[in-house]
Amino acid sequence: MDCLDFLFSDETPVPSPCFVLDEARLAANAAILDEVQRRTGAKILLALKGYAAWATFPLLSRTGTGPLWGVCASSVDEARLGREEFGGEVHAFAAAWTEAEIVELLDLADHIVFNSPAQWRQFRPVIEARNRARRAENPIECGLRLNPEHSEGAVPIYDPCSPGSRLGIRQRHFDPADLEGISGLHFHTLCEQGADALARTLDAVEKKFGPYLPACRWINMGGGHHITKPGYDLDLLCACLTRWRQRYDARIYLEPGEAVALNAGWLTATVLDVVMADMPVAVLDVSAACHMPDVLEMPYRPEVFYRHEGATARAGAAGERAWTCRLAGKSCLAGDVIGEYGFAAPLEAGQRLVFGDMAIYSMVKTTTFNGLRLPSIGICKAGNASGENRFRLLREFGYADFRNRLS
Could you say which residues bind substrate here (predicted)? Predict the structure, then answer.
C-alpha cells in the first residue's frame, strides 16, 4: 500500500487537515538528483525557500543518508536551520542584507552571494576581517548575482529576469573591477522548467558575461530546475553541466527546491458542508489562502484524490465526471477558492479529500489569517508497515501558535 492509499484506508491515523510527507517519494527524488551529481560532478543544494521540513533532512543530506551537499538560504533564519539541521555547505543569497544579518551570517554561511556591487563593497571589509581571523579555516566565499536578461518564466511574478526585476546585475551595470575578492558568480532564470530552458540560459550568460567566467572558482546556476519531473531530459542537463565544469574548471552548483520534494507531500482535507451557489460548493477544513497560497498566487490547480467504490480515484476537470463542484476554503476571503473539479458522485460532509504535491511552496508559506489553525505535519514512512507504524505525527498547531505571532 503506497502512502496515498494509506491516507484513505480504514486504519489510517492521519488527522485532517494534515501535511503528510512521503518518505518513499523523497528518497526517489534524492536518487535522481544523486545520479546527476555522479554523472557531472556538480553539487546540488536544497533551496530551503521551497522545502524546509527539517525532520526529513537526514533522508536528503550527505551528513545523513542522502546525497545533497547542503542548502541555499534566503535569510539568516534559513541559514541557521541549514547549519544546525542539514549540515554540509550553506549558501546564502538575498536581494539585500542588513549589517546585523551579515554579522550573523559570518558564523553560518560558507558562501554569501550579493545582489549588487554596492552591497559587496559595503560588507567586504567585515567578511575579509573574519576570514583573516580564521586564516585558512573555512573562509567565506563571496559571489555576485548576474541578470542575463533572459526570461524563461511564464508567470511574471516568478520570473527573476522580467523587466524591472530587482534581482541580479545587468550587463550594462557590470564593472569588472567589482570582481576583486569575488570567487564565483550566480544566476537564476528558471521556474519549474526543463533542461532546454537551462541550455538557452547558459547561452545567454556566456553571450553577456563570458569573459568573466574563466576566473570563477564556482558557478551557481540557481534553482527552478524540474529535474525530478517525469520526462525531464536528464541527458541534456548532464551534458550542460559537464560542459561548463570542463570549460571553466569551476565547481558547478544547482539549488532546486521543488525538484527535491516534488510530488512527495500530501494535504488531507475534509468536506465540512456543500452549499449551493451557481454550482455546488464544497467547503473544506483547509484554505487556499492560508494553507496553499500558490493556488491563488501562481495560480495553479492542484490534483485532488478521493475514495470511490472502494478505490482511490483522481478528480477530473469540471464537466469530466458525473458531478462537478467548486472546492473552497473556510476563511472569510471571498476568493478562497481552490478550483472546480469533477467527481464520480456528489461529495458529502465528512468525506476525505487529499491534495497532491503539497510538500513544496505550501508548508513554507502557510499563514494563520482569520486565526485558522495550521494543518498538522506528519510523515508516511516507506516500507510495508501499516497503521500507527506507518505514520508519525511530527507537529500539531494550536491557539498559542496564532497568539504568539502577534504580540
Answer: 258, 294
Q: Could you tell me which of 274, 296, 388 has the C-alpha nearest to residue 15?
A: 388
Where residue 385 falls among pLDDT bands split at 50, 70, 90? low
Sorted by where each begins, the domain ranges of the chain are 3-17+265-358+375-404, 23-260
Instruction: Provide CATH code, domain 3-17+265-358+375-404.
Output: 2.40.37.10
The set of residues, in sequence order, having a beta carbon less than 8 Å from that of 22 and lying 6+ positions away, is 3, 263, 264, 265, 266, 359, 379, 380
**pLDDT for position 136:** 66
pTM of the model: 0.95
Residue with cell 554540509: 88
Domain 23-260, CATH: 3.20.20.10
The answer to whether the annotation marks 258 as part of a ligand binding site is: yes
Alpha carbon distances (Å) from 152 to 77, 98, 165, 169, 331 = 30, 30, 14, 17, 35
Nearest to 341 by CA among 307, 362, 314: 314
Q: What is the CA radius of gyration of the chain?
A: 23
Instruction: Say if CB 29 and CB 261 are below 8 A apart.
Output: yes
The set of residues, in sequence order, having a beta carbon less than 8 Å from that of 188 and lying 6+ positions away, is: 145, 160, 167, 168, 221, 222, 223, 224
